[in-house]
Specification:
four-stranded antiparallel sheet, Immunoglobulin-like, 19 strands, alpha+beta
Length: 336
């Protein structure tokens, strides 16, 4: 309870009303009886006006489990409609979000007369697929899309997630990861359509359904999690906001010339079409050093170009270093 007290104090100092806590513990279904005992002990340690919420695996709700005792010990439960299956293989693509069948789940969740919310995924994941044996790696769509050795195919899951599958046409390497011919990477990405579909089904869940919980809030410069404004727009069937890109020129304080590191910022997220950017410079470039992973290039003495590949959006992309004799201004334009 020390942690709860610390959270309450932090919320008080920041002027935030803290209504309760949520425990995200993926307890095996066979251990639900012990989990219920644990939750009752936690409940006793909280003040009566402080709520206790838990996430819940869908497997808990099959016949013959102790899920009723678990639900009885809390104020709210959040069934997680994601990561239900074992991670897949090349022949069977993985999914993150599961299709939410309200007709199937409504009677099971409402049975307990307890408030619940539907857990919906907004994050993505990458899977390395060499020689038919999958492993999970920290690669982003932009990392692979920039390599001309890869060919991309797209498909869609039942829950409207997008699957990007990149296969190498020849041997290549990205950072520390080597790819032989026909090896590749698979990306599973949430989409606005997936959010709209999930929310539509959640609205059919019955009287005790209090809404949805989106997992999760993105950290800085993530490229495989939907941005909160896009999630909110999709959930309310509003137009998805158009993100306007910008160019940041960081003065690197070179001694005899003026040099700037150029960053493309706030690019559109997981957009299925490429976008070509043109950067106009107010004076002649002495030279331009592109980032090794970003194929920006000079196309004239005062002009740089860069094409953002499909699904390649990121919060910030380093284009390279521009060098001019004197201080220069950089103007960004996007073309179809």
């Amino acid at each position: 309870m020390q942690t709860v007290g610390e959270l309450k104090e932090e919320a008080r100092t920041r002027g935030i009303r803290l209504a309760g806590i949520q425990l995200d513990i993926d307890v095996p279904t066979s251990a639900l009886r012990d989990y219920a005992t644990y939750l009752k002990a936690v409940r006793k340690g909280l003040s009566p006006d402080f709520e206790l919420s838990i996430t819940a695996l869908l497997d808990w709700f099959r016949a013959g489990t102790w899920v009723g005792n678990v639900v009885d010990a809390v104020d709210e439960f959040v069934p997680q409609f994601y990561d239900l299956q074992a991670r897949g293989s090349i022949s069977r693509p993985s999914t993150i979000g599961a299709f939410i069948d309200a007709e199937k789940w409504r009677p099971l969740f409402n049975l307990y007369g307890k408030r619940f919310r539907i857990g919906v995924s907004t994050f993505g994941r990458s899977k390395l697929i060499p020689a038919g044996k999958p492993s999970w790696v920290d690669l982003k769509p932009l990392d692979v899309a920039m390599d001309p050795a890869f060919v991309m195919e797209t498909s869609e899951t039942e829950s409207k997630e997008t699957i990007l599958r990149f296969r190498a046409a020849r041997n290549t390497r990205i950072s520390y990861t080597e790819f032989a011919q026909n090896e590749g990477v698979e990306f599973i990405l949430s989409t606005p359509d997936a959010i709209r579909t999930a929310v539509k089904q959640a609205k059919k869940m019955g009287e005790y359904c209090a809404g949805v919980v989106f997992f999760r809030w993105p950290t800085f410069n993530e490229s495989m999690v939907l941005e909160p404004d896009a999630v909110l727009a999709a959930a309310t069937s509003a137009p998805v906001p158009v993100r306007l890109p910008s160019l940041r020129a960081i003065d690197e304080q070179c001694a005899s010339v003026h040099c700037s590191d150029l960053y493309l910022a706030d690019t559109p997220g997981l957009r299925p079409n490429p976008i070509r950017y043109v950067i106009e410079v107010s004076s002649d470039l002495e030279y331009f050093l592109p980032d090794e992973s970003t194929p920006a290039r000079m196309t004239g003495p005062r002009r740089l170009e860069f094409t953002l590949p499909p699904f390649g959006g990121r919060t910030q992309i380093h284009l390279g270093r521009a060098v001019t004799a004197n201080f220069s201004k950089y103007t960004l334009k996007a073309t179809p």
